[in-house]
Amino acid sequence: MPKGSVAITTERCKGCGFCVEFCPTHGLELSSAFNAKGYHPPHMISAEKCSGCNLCGMYCPDFAIFGYKYPANKAKGEAA
Ligand code: SF4
Ligand code: SF4
């Protein structure tokens, strides 16, 4: 089970790739799709690897992504 996930606001993204580069679990890549500004926003390729560490959010210059941790019981796969 993943320990966390990310929220991505694709329209804020400028496609710099910092989030992809700095994700310690290599869970992100830039999409082949474009947003309205013509940039490629990130998407998760390995959701199960995400720790919710929010390094992606700390490196994003445009506040377009942030990571969050699941509550401990959800991370263990138990009902909330
Ligand atoms: S929260 Fe951490 S593990 Fe998840 S995508 Fe962002 S940098 Fe990667
Ligand atoms: S760091 Fe932010 S602006 Fe750069 S590609 Fe990732 S989400 Fe987009």
Q: What descriptive keywords fit this protein?
A:
two-stranded antiparallel ribbon, two-stranded antiparallel sheet, binds iron/sulfur cluster, 4 strands, 18% helix, single chain, Alpha-Beta Plaits, 80 residues, alpha+beta
Assembly state of the chains shown: single chain
Rg? 13 Å
- How many strands, which pairing sense, and closed or not: the largest β-sheet? 2 strands, antiparallel
User: How many domains comprise the coordinates?
Assistant: 1
Task: Let me know the average pLDDT.
Answer: 93
Helical proportion, percent range: 10-25%
- Reading off the top of the CATH hierarchy, the class is best stated as Alpha Beta
Instruction: Give me the CATH architecture, please.
Output: 2-Layer Sandwich
Small molecules bound in the structure, each named once: iron/sulfur cluster
Description of the structure:
- It contains three helices and four strands, in the order βαββαβα.
- 20% of the residues are buried.
- It is 18% helix and 20% strand.
- The chain has 80 residues and is α+β, with helices and mostly antiparallel strands.
- It has a single domain (4-75), classed as Alpha-Beta Plaits.
- Bound molecules: iron/sulfur cluster (2 copies).
- Residues 13-19, 41-42, 59-60, 62, 64-65 line the site of one iron/sulfur cluster.
